Give the backbone structure.
Amino acid sequence: MRIERRLHQPRWLSVAVPIGSLGVAFLGVAIVLAATGHEPIKTFRELIDAAFIADGALSASLTTATPLLFTGLAAAVAFRIRLFNIGGEGQLYFGAIGAAAAALLLNGQSTFVLIVAMCVSGAASGAAWALIPGLLRAYLSTNEIITSLMLNYVAGLLLNYLIFDSQSYWRDTSSPEAKVFPQGKTLPTEADWPTSMLGSVVIPLGFLLAIALAGVLWVLYSRTRFGFEAQVIGDSPRAAQYAGMSTRRKILAVMCLSGAIAGIGGASQDGDFRHQLDARGLQQPGYGYSGIVVAALARYNPFAVVLVALLLGGLQNAGYTLQGPDFPSGLTGVMQGMILFAALGGELLVRYRFRFGWSARRAAAAEAAR
Amino acid sequence: MNNSILVVVLASAVAYGTPLLYAALGELLAERAGVLNLGVEGMMLVGAVMGFWAVQRIGGPAGVVLPLAITVAALAGAVVALIHAFLVITLRANQIVSGLALTIFAGAAGLSSYLGNDLHLADAPAKYSLASVNAFGLDDLPIVGPIVFGQSWLVYASWVCVVAVGLYLSRTRPGLNLRAVGESPAAADAMGIDVIAYRYAHTVAGGVFAGVGGACFSLALTPQWVDGLTGGAGWIAIALVIFAFWRADLCLVGAYLFGAFQALPFTLQAREVRIAPTEVYQSLPYVMTIVVLVLVSSVGAKRRLGAPGALGVPYVREER
């Protein structure tokens, strides 16, 4: 057998490989399931039913797909230029904090004003939190992977502090039971983001916003000077330096952009789904980490992020619905990991070609003759 | 005197630093071979859950069960590391993405949690845990007693590991080969060193150490199974390797420094010292990791002091 680099990559491969990888991943999950005494086929059938087919399943899947779409886009813009921002989780919390503050502050304004204010405030808060690892990376070349990850824990602790351990602006202290069971203040009803219907499927506003954002990002990366320079910096920092591109400013800009997208994801959590600063509910699902899986599977392409977010959102939603003895929690992470492993392995098939037996010998002979 | 807060914090700094030390030594070996493994957190958690499972399910006296449990944890870590090794060494996948995938696959919402649930491990304390031993009967010595002589044997074993890894890297033939593989795999290959075998072996060794580090949590520190009980220790261990300039002896120093930050919230809570909200103490390990990384990188990263030259780069013989 010989492995050689492909000189040009056929188009059909970029469709066939992801689908094949998905098949391999589910085979891997089936092995884990069978090894721990579950029936893989039955579990998969239940899974697909709960994710996409049952009554209301699609609407529920969109609820989990929406935050994944935001965090997936956030990871994709940064990873694409090899800026490994894994702080999407914390930036989403900050977006939620900022958006909730705006909604509480502007109580009484119209829904439109509130939506705009929540998005702006959420984006700004997420960007500010992302700026910390961005600045450290740009000016002190500190590894952004570790700093952005550490800040996720800090942001989570801040959420806990605001809701459980202080009399903060966000915490509901109006009634005696709210003092015993701490929770966030309910946002004004004008801050409930409107939904639209497609048949019987409820589409949250955040989902539409995120799709629009995906379009904007695609234009930014493929049609503007900014996007071009950012990619050059990602692919070859030295070439960018010789061409006179400002690496530092690009790092800061992309980091802020990434944080802002995750921050709007946090705003959508407040406006679309939770209607309060929900400290526990935001931390439990790990949207930021799943967003990395989404981005990597989509190979950092914004439109592919939409599709992958729908798929993984469906699986995550099914995981919540089915959670129980037949479907232990943690299986969602196992599936996500397996899918990503398979996709990473599949990458090899796109980049290299395998020759076996006779064909390999002929290629070796051709090379020897050269 | 041995009850004074400083001695208690220092003694628990050693205890809490030990899992960091094991994980960092493992990551050090993998990175010296040129393989960056960001899946340490995942490997630790799987080690923790499997070690705990072994203690609960294997019958026998503590003296037999506990070493067996540590072995199970080490093997579990090795198996998880093997996935990363296969992806990045054989399939030449991006090491950063593969490592992140490993943590998502195995970590707090993944395989470790799946196993913990499916094997019904939560909500029961460990049948046996690694208690502190009284080494040479000296644990009531003032100050050094609790810090040095009153630890569990995992702590003493970790000291042996530090010396062993340090000597291995600097004084043995395979250690020298390993460094060559990490610095310049093409040159190592030309010398006749099997680059692929070295990378596999040391990535898997990293998994063994991370598994033992995880077991420190579930068998000694906590000692029970809680989802995500390592709380980011695997990531701190990765930072620790950078802090230690890829040297085993400095890993020890760094581990106890970070161990102190991890131990401080618990000690202060136990003593009901309340100068700031608990969240401030709890965020200390994470904030200090960032601070230390910033200090180290402003000193060393300009020239990547100590970092193996080929760290994170796949080796493809045909494209030398």
Q: What stands out?
A: Chain A touches chain B through 49 residues (CB under 8 Å). Chain A has 16 helices and four strands.
